[in-house]
Amino acid sequence: MLRRTLHASMAALLWFAASAAFAQDTSKTQGKDQSKKPAKKSGKKSPPPVDNSQEPDKVLYERAMADMKRGRQEIARLSLQTLINTYPDSEYLAKSKLAIADSFYREGGSANWAQAVSSYKDFQVFFPFLPEAPYAQMQIGMVYYREMEKPDRDRSKARAAEDALQTFLQKYPNDPLAPKAEQRLREVQEVIAEGDFRIASFYYIRGAYKASGSRLIALTNRYPLYSRADRALWMLGTIFEKSERKDIAAVNYARIVREYPLSDYVEMSKKKLVAMNLPVPQPDAMALARMQQERNANHRGPGMMHKATGILHSGPNVQMAATVGKPNLEPESASEGDILKPGGQSG
User: Fold this and answer.
1) 3-state secondary structure of 317
2) Mean model confidence pLDDT for the chain
3) Mean predicted confidence (pLDDT) in 308-316
4) SS3 of 319, please?
5) Which pTM value belongs to this model?
6) Dist. CA 99–CA 108, nearest whole Å
7) C-alpha separations of 14 from 5, 18, 21, 26, 232 in Å
8) C-alpha distances in Å from residue 245, one per residue of 210, 234, 236, 240, 340
9) Which of these, 185, 183, 178, 136, lies nearest to 162 by C-alpha position?
10) What integer pLDDT is reported at residue 21 of this predicted model?
11) Cystine design at 321: which of 28, 184, 190, 271 (Cβ 3.0–4.6 Å)?
């Protein structure tokens, strides 16, 4: 009987100990689970991250634009080229091609400018009817404009700029960029005319009147807005007088009076006409208004055209270029110098 009672007591103690251990383990497990739960944040919930996977071409384009703004042109071109190669049907395709050209233009230097011209021309071939097509043509002209040399040096870039800007104004005369293109063309033509005038003056001083006259004729007919066109006409009048062609000399003197009424050569030209018993023409009203407007214009600003474009390059001075009047939009034609006779040259 005593043994049975001891067994019952031992069983009760074991059950109680097991129950206590189970309760303790359960409490620990619940504590661990609660500690794993994230703490609640106070305030507004942060927005979920933006998923750009739906428009990867847009992401590439915007990244490239950001790099271009920071001056990382080459990195920008890598993103743009990736966009073009990977997404040929993207709505950003045209913009990317134009941006590549712009990146070369901004980077500067002969090699990059050559790439810019090629890229702008490619854009025109693939997208001739987009609103950005006039801009691409203007930029071609601006590349050559920035590469212009002084009048007494190589003028191939100046002539290329003239051709590109003339093309722009012929194709897009009503574009918002047209006024800027006109002014740049006036400046380019001032540089070209100045170069021709210097060569003509060189021959004039040495008495090689035919060589001088042929250049002066082309200059005065092609670039009437040139700042020294009146002097060129006066030199022509002198040359034709020496060539015993007073009739043609009178035409040049009359042009000075009529087309350059505020010129310092007007009074001398009038005297020449009177001495030839020829009528003195009245000044052209539009020419007078143009010259008055030019005199009121500020030609004392920065003369180096590269100050306006922000590049370090010893380029031509365009300070004296006209600011009013229509520049010549026609391509260069053959010289009319053959009307001068060989007798006009001095030995």
Assistant:
1) strand
2) 84
3) 58
4) coil
5) 0.78
6) 14
7) 15, 6, 11, 18, 127
8) 13, 14, 11, 5, 9
9) 185
10) 44
11) 190
Q: Give the DSSP letter string of 250-263.
A: HHHHHHHHHH-TTS
Asked if residues 216 and 239 have their Cβ atoms less than 8 Å apart, the reply is yes
Q: What tokens appear for 71 in the block?
A: 């001056």
Q: 3-state class of 233 per DSSP? A: helix
pLDDT (average), residues 238-261:
96
Q: How confident is the model at residue 54 (pLDDT cuts 50, 70, 90)?
A: low
Residue pair 172/137 in contact (Cβ under 8 Å)? The answer is yes
Q: Which two tokens stand for residue 303?
A: 């003369």
Residue 275 scores a pLDDT above 60: yes
User: 317: which strand partners?
Assistant: 304
Both structure tokens of 342: 């060989």
Tell me, what amino acid is at 166? Q
Fold agreement (53-130, 131-339): yes
Q: In the CATH hierarchy, which fold is given to the domain comprising 53-130? A: 1.25.40
Give the chain's end-to-end CA distance (angstroms, integer).
Answer: 162
* Nearest CA among 171, 207, 184 for reference residue 315: 184
User: Angle between the 110-126 and 93-107 helix axes, to the nearest 10 degrees?
Assistant: 160
CATH of 131-339, one of 3.30.70.100, 1.25.40.10, 3.40.50.720, 3.30.70.660: 1.25.40.10
pLDDT at 32: 46
Report pLDDT for 193: 97
Sign of the torsion formed by the C-alpha atoms of 97, 98, 100 and 101: positive
pLDDT score recorded for residue 298: 62
**DSSP letter (8 states) at residue 244:** T
The ranges assigned to domains in the chain are 53-130, 131-339
Task: Return the closest-CA partner of residue 341 out of 209, 202, 200.
Answer: 209
**What are the angstrom distances between the C-alpha of 271 and each of 95, 238, 261, 263, 268?**
62, 13, 14, 14, 5
